[in-house]
């Protein structure tokens, strides 16, 4: 049974979501402030954390800052409806996805399953070719089965979503990958109008990977269409 930590100060909402998610086969622990969230994460492993932005003691962003990358499970942030600033900031700080409150429990469950699935998934290309354990593009090395990424000898820490996007782009290096394909294959959902999440994940990848050996940007934007990992 997959374990979820639900962090929200709305007690009634937590009770509703615990009932619903339990029926969907998840084990759910709840805490209601940022301090408790950080302490609980430090002491217990979880498959995913649902994290509200507005919390007493520490807000959701403070929790993301405090909990180390190694201790932090994938994160689905809950943001106020229409508050794009919180969504962008959450993604910048390493959240895998976001959902506006009030949220539909069915949509929440679908997002949870999608994030957990891609966190543990082996890229489909590796399932049919056991020899393709490593994908090498000059100084970039991606180990798909171990979910490790290196630039030169430096290991790059990526979220599950960032890893899936990078692997898809690298597998298709030199070719256009549409935003629709990235959303469906890497985020498990159809592309929504005005959704900035893909742009933010691409921005994180560029920052984390740095320029290539020719000091050029590794991921090129094809405006209005998608992205391309630049093949040399």
TrEMBL record:
Modified residues (4-aspartylphosphate): 52
Localisation: Cytoplasm
All residue ranges annotated as the Response regulatory domain in the record: 3-116
Residues of the DNA-binding region: 132-231
GO cellular component: cytosol; protein-DNA complex
Protein's GO biological process: regulation of DNA-templated transcription
Protein name: Winged helix family two component transcriptional regulator
Predominant subcellular localization, coarse grouping: cytoplasm
Domain of life: Bacteria
Keywords: Cytoplasm, DNA-binding, Phosphoprotein, Transcription, Transcription regulation, Two-component regulatory system
Gene Ontology MF term list: phosphorelay response regulator activity; transcription cis-regulatory region binding
Pfam family membership, one: Response_reg
Domain OmpR/PhoB-type: 132-231
SMART domains for this protein: REC, Trans_reg_C
Alphabetical list of CDD domains matching this protein: REC_OmpR_CpxR, trans_reg_C
């Amino acid at each position: 049974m997959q374990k979820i930590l639900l962090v929200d100060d709305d007690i009634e909402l937590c009770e509703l979501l615990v009932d619903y998610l339990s029926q969907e086969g998840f084990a759910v622990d709840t805490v209601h402030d940022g301090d408790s969230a950080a302490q609980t994460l430090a002491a217990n492993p979880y498959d995913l954390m649902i994290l509200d932005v507005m919390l007493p003691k520490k807000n959701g962003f403070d929790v993301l800052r405090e909990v180390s990358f190694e201790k932090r499970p994938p994160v689905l942030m809950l943001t106020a409806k229409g508050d794009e600033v919180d969504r962008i900031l959450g993604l910048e700080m390493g959240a895998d996805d976001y959902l506006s409150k009030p949220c539909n429990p069915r949509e929440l469950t679908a997002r949870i399953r999608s994030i957990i699935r891609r966190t543990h998934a082996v890229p489909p290309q590796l399932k049919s070719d056991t020899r393709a354990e490593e994908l090498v593009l000059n100084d970039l090395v991606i180990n798909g089965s171990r979910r490790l990424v290196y630039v030169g000898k430096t290991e790059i820490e990526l979220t599950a979503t960032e890893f899936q996007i990078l692997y898809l782009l690298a597998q298709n290096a030199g070719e256009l990958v549409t935003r629709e394909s990235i959303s469906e294959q890497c985020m498990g959902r159809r592309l929504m109008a005005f959704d900035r999440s893909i742009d933010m994940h691409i921005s994180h990848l560029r920052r984390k990977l740095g320029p290539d050996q020719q000091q050029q940007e590794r991921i090129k934007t094809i405006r209005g269409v998608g992205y391309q990992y630049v093949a040399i």
